[in-house]
Amino acid sequence: MLHLSYNQMPQAQIFRLFYFPTGNDVDENQVTEAADAIYEQQDHAFKLNLSFGVILRNRETGEYRYFRPFYNDTVLNRPLYISKRRDLRTLTLRLRRMDIFSLLLLHRPDTKWVPVLVTNFRFTIFHTFYPIGDLHGPLPDYVKMNKALIGVESCEKSGKTYNDHNCAFRCLALHKGFDVRTLNGETKRLFHTWVKFKGDIRDFSGVEYSDLPDFESCFEINVEVYALNQEGHTSSIYKSRGRYEKTMYVHLFKGHFSYIKDFGLFAKKYQCKFCDKLWDHKGNYIKHELKCQDKTKFVFPGGFYKPTKTLFEDLSYFGVKCVDQVYPWFIVYDFEALLHQVQGQRSDKVEWTHEHVPISVSVCSNVPGYQEPHCIINPDSETLVKDMVDYMRTISQKVEEMAKQRWGLALNQIEQMIYDLGEGEEEEEEDSEKKKLKSLYGRLKAYIRQVPVLGFNSAKYDLNLIKTKLAKHLGLHEEEYCFTIKKNNAYACISTEQLKFLDVTHFLAPGTSYAKFLKAYQVKESKGYFPYEWFNDVNKLEVTELPPPSAFYSSLKNSCISDEDYEHCQTAWTDHNMTTFKDFLVWYNNLDVRPFVTAVTRLQTFYFERNIDVFKIAMSVPGIARKMLFDTARREGAEFTLFDKNNKDLFYTIKSNIVGGPSIIYHRKAVKGETKIRGGKLCQKILGYDCNALYLWCIGQEMPVGTMVRRKAEEGFKPEVRDKNIKMFQWMNFVNKYQGKDIKHARNDGQEKRVGPYPVDGYDELTNTIYQFHGCYFHGHRCRLTDRVSDETWHENRNKKFVKTKKTTAYLKGKGYKVIEMWECDFEEFCKEHPEIHALGWELRPNFYRRHRGKVSEKQILSGVRDETLFGMVEVDIKVPEKWEGDFKHELSPWDYFKEMSPLFCNTEVKFEDIGEHMQAHIKNERLATHPRRLLVGGMKAEKILLATPLLKWYLEHGLKVTRIYQVVEFNAHACFKQFVNDVTEARRAGDARPEMGIIGDTMKLIGNSGYGSLIMDKTKHRDIIYVRGERETCLAINQDEFRNATCLGDDFYELEMAKHKTIMDLPIQLVYFILQYGKMKMLEFNYDFLDVYVDRSDYMLLEMDTDSNYLCISGENLREVVKPEMLQMYDHFLKDYCRENACAAFLPRECCDMHKKYDRRVPGLFKTEYEGDKMIGLCSKTYVVANGDECKFSSKGITKMNVNNVWETYDNVLRNQKAGSAMNRGIRARDNTMFTYTQQRNGFSYFYCKRKVLVDGISTTPLDITLKP
C-alpha cells in the first residue's frame, strides 16, 4: 500500500513535494504506481521530477549518514511534462533504461560513501496551468474602446466586476444571441452543461487553454482565439479544427475572454506572431503563418565545423576501446498487396484504378535462429502489422542478447568510470563529466538494443502501405526515443528503441531496381512472377490451381507473362507441393527476402572493411559520403568556418546564390542536311558531350578553408578578422616546426584530447606531453595585460579562475602527463625572441589579408582576383560590356560573343514582358498564366551576385566588367578533398580492370556522385514528425507554435509535421556553393576555351546544355573534321602526344593508346562523347530528343519513358503545331494513407519556353534582356 504524503502549500504554490517510503527492492513499477497516485489528485497538467533518499556508509570510517532527496539530485535531466495518464509511460520507460542503484552512486557526496539502504523517494511536481477566466486586473483602454469587442468584465446591471471565471460562457451566450444585460441565466446554464460534460470540477478557476478542444466538443461550436495589441494588429492564439457549422471568435487578454461581435471590424492588420509581418487579409495571413520560417530559431554557432563523431570514436575519446565497431545484424521485410479495383475515382486527367491493401509480409534476417523467411498472411491489416512488429521485436531481443555479449565490457567500463568519478575534481567539472558519461552510456545501450530493419523501395511503398497501422503498433505516440524522417510522402527513417526502419534504395544509385541490386552484389535472383491485378479478392487465396497466363497481365507494364516464365511458375507449384494460391503467395513473397539478406550482407562487407557502420551512422549514401569527405579533410588539416550570429546575413547571401546546374535550350531543332549553322553551312552531325563526374571534379578543386576575413564596401573594405585562439595555434605550430614535436590540436587534428573532465589544448603522444596556452584575462592571471582591466566582476572572480587553472594543471600532472604551459603575456616576449613565429601565424590567415591588413580599393580587390592572391567570394554588379575594354579582345562584339551561351547564371524572376513577342503570343493563344516565373537562366548582366573568385577570375579574363563591389569574403585555398576524389577514381579503374572488383568500383562511383549531395543539405527546411492520439491532444498540438501540417492515420491517430524549435546551422554552406560555381566554370571553359578556340563558329552551333552535358551540331562528320586548320596540330598533340604517366588531359580523353584511353575514361572533368546523332529537338528544359536513324535518346520530365510512342514525331508535332503534347503515365502513388495504381494523361511536352527569347521561327533563341538578381 502506498501512503501519499506531501507538505501543504498556499493556493498560489508553484510546486509540491510528495514522499514515498520504500526499500532496496524499489523498481520502476513501484515508482510509476506512486506517480499514478499523484496523477489522481491533480486537476491540471504538471511537470514532474524524481529523487531518492538513501542511507550511506563511509567505507573508510564505517560512519553512516542520511542523504536527503534534494531537487538538485534529481533522476531526470529535466522535468517530465504530464498532461494525461499515459504520459507516465515515459517515466516508466526512462526508469527501465536506468539502473537505480547506479543512479544513487552518481548523487553521493564522493566515492568514499556507498549506499546501503534506500529509504524513500520524492516527487517534485510543478504546476503549469494558467486558467482562462481570471482577468487579474481591468482590461486596457485599447480593448475597451474597440467597437468590435464586448469585454464582459463586469455586470451591466450592478456594475460589479465578475470574479467567477465564467467569461468563456458569457461569450458563448452572447454568440447565441443573448443580450449583454441578461446574460447571467444563460451563463449559469452553459456552465452546468460544461460541468456535466467534464464531470466533477473541483475548485473551478476557468476554462483552461488545454480545455478548448473539449469546449468545442461540448457546445458543438468552433472557437477561434485572437489577441490584439495597442496598434490594432491581431495575432492568432488558438485555431479551431473547424468541425462544426458555427464559429465563435473571442479575444484573449491575460486569461480573460472578450467576445468579438464583428470580426471584420475587429482588426486593422493581421500580424504574424513569429516574424511580425503584417497582412491586410486574413486568408493571406493564415497561409503565411502556417509556413513562416521564423517559427524555428536558427542558431549560428560560429567557430569551425566539427564532424559528428561515431559512438566508437566518442568511446575511444574517453578511453573505452572496442575491437568490434560495426553492427552486423539486420532484418529485411517485403509486403505484398491485394489490388482492389476502385470505381468512379476519376478526374479530367487522373484515374485511380486499384487500391493496394496489404495481405502478406515476409520477414528474414541474418540473426541465428531467424535466417529462414517467415511469411505472415492476414487479410486484417491491423493484425498483419501487429504480428509483423511482434516478430521483429522477438528478433530484436535476440540481437540485443548477442550485442550485449559483444559490447558488455564497454558498458561495464563506463559504469565503473561513473562509479569512480569524483575524487580530486572540482564539483562543476565532475558534474559535466558525469553527464557526458551518462549520455555515452545511454547511447551505447540504445546502439545495442536497436536493430536496422530494411526494405526495398519501402520509403515510398511499403511504409505508406501500412502507415495507418504501423504508427500505433510501434507506439510512436508513446515512445520517448523515437523519430521519423520524412520527405514529401517518403519515409527515410522510422526509428524506435528496438527497430530502425530504413530503405536500402537510399544506399544505391537512383533508379536501381531490385534485380540490378542483386546483380551488382553477385547474388543470383530467384525468379518469380505474380498475378497482381488478378489477385483482387481475399477469397482467391483458396483457389486450388495456378491462375491462367492471362491473369498475369500487367497494365503498368502493358505486358503479359511469357510461356517460359509461366512454365517456371507451374514447376514451382508442383515442386513445392502447393495446394492453394495461398501457398503460391507464401512462395512468391519469400522469394524476395532470402536473396535480399545475402545482397545486404555483401553491401555491409564493403563498408565494414572501411570501418563504416553503414546502417548505424547514416540513413542514405550522402550521409556516408559526408563522413568520408570530412575524414579526408581532417587528415589534410583542413577546417571550415561556420558563421556566427554577426555574420548570419552572409549565410543567407550564400544560400540565395546557391544555383544548381543550368538546363537551357539554345536552338530548338537541328536536322542533318537541313539546318543551317548560323545561317550558313548545313548541319552534318549532332554531338553530345558529357563531363565525366563533373561534381566529383569540382570537389577536388581548391576549397575555402581556415579563418574567414570579411570586407564590406560601406566600411572601405576594412578587414573584419576572426582571430580567436590564433596565438595558441601559432605557438604550438612553432613548436612542431622548429622543435620537432608532433603536437595534435583542434586545428590540425579536428579534435582536442581529453584527460578526465578536461579538454587540453595540445598533446604530443610521443613524449606524453600536454601543451596548455592560457589567455591571461580568461584564466585570471595578474600581469601587465590585465593591470588595466576595470571590470569589477573580473576582479571578484580572478583568483577563482587562477586557482582553477592551477588545479587543472595539477590534475593533469597527477595523471602522469608532462605539462608545458604558456601564458599570453609570456608569449609576447617569446615572439620577440623568435620572430619567425609570426610567419606561422600568417599561414593561418588568408593570403590577401596578409598583404592588405587595412582598407583596400575595388581595383586592388580585382587585381587580387586576377593574380589569385585573393581567394573566396566577391559580391558584385557585373555585365557583358558594350565594347571590349581590357586585355581580352575578339572579332565579335561582346554581346555577339556571349549571346549563345550567356555567361552569368542565376535564379531570378522572369516576367511576361521579358520573354519576347513570340512566347507572349503563345501564352495569350493558349490562355497560359502571365505571372512572373522564378527560373535558373543565363544572362548578360547581374546585380549583387555572389561569385567565387575562380569563376570571377574567368569572367574578368574573358572581358566581363565589374561595375560595383559590395563585399569580399576571404579564405585560404586548399584542395582538401583531393584524396577522396583519387580514391573514388582509382576504385572505378580497379573495377574496370578486374571483374571481382566491380562491386567496389560501382559503390565508390555512387559515393563519389553523392559527395556533392551530402553537402547541399538545407537545414532550414528540416521538420519534426510527431504522432499523437485523440482529437483533444491533436487539437492542442495543432495549436503549438511549431505546427505545420497534420495527417489523420485513422483510429484517432495523427501524424503531425512540426517546425523545429531550434536548428543549429553547423554545416559549412560555402563548400556546396563553391562546388556549384566550379561546375558552371567548367561548362563555360568547355565552350569558350575549347570549342570556340578550336572550331570556327561557322562550323558549330550550341543546341542544349543540362548541368554536365552539352549538345551541339557541327558541319562535319566528327569534331576533328571541323577543327580550324591552324589549330589541328595542337588538337592532335593534346590527344595523341601525351602518351606518358601522370599527363593531364585538358578537355578530351587521350587517344594515344588503349591504356591511356582506359585511364582517361575515369578522369573527372574530361568531356566524353555521350551521343552522336543526325537530328535533335529541344522543347524546353529537360525535354529533348536526339536521334540517330530510328534510334532515339530522349528526356521527358514528368512522363514515364516507356509510355511515349513515336518519340520523334511526338516532339516534332509539338514544335510544328505549337501545341502541348501529352502521354499516358501509369504508376503507383501514395494517396489517402495507402497506395493506389493510377493512370494519368499528362501534358509533359510543352511548347512554352521562356529561359531565352524564342524568335518568330519558334526555333532560334536569343538571351533575355534582363538583369539577374538572386
From TrEMBL:
Organism superkingdom: Eukaryota
EC number of this enzyme: 2.7.7.7
Keyword Magnesium among UniProt keywords: no
Keyword Cell division applies: no
Pfam families hit by this protein: DNA_pol_B_2
UniProtKB keywords: DNA replication, DNA-binding, DNA-directed DNA polymerase, Nucleotidyltransferase, Transferase
Membrane-spanning intervals of the chain: none
GO MF term list: DNA binding; DNA-directed DNA polymerase activity; nucleotide binding
Catalytic activity line of the entry: DNA(n) + a 2'-deoxyribonucleoside 5'-triphosphate = DNA(n+1) + diphosphate
Signal peptide limits: none
InterPro entries registered for this protein in UniProt: DNA-dir_DNA_pol_B_mt/vir, DNA/RNA_pol_sf, Restrct_endonuc-II-like
GO biological process: DNA repair; DNA replication
Domain named DNA-directed DNA polymerase family B mitochondria/virus: residues: 450-716
Family under the similarity heading: Belongs to the DNA polymerase type-B family.
PANTHER family according to UniProt: DNA-DIRECTED DNA POLYMERASE, PROTEIN CBG10425
UniProt name for this protein: DNA-directed DNA polymerase
Species per Swiss-Prot/TrEMBL record: Pinctada imbricata
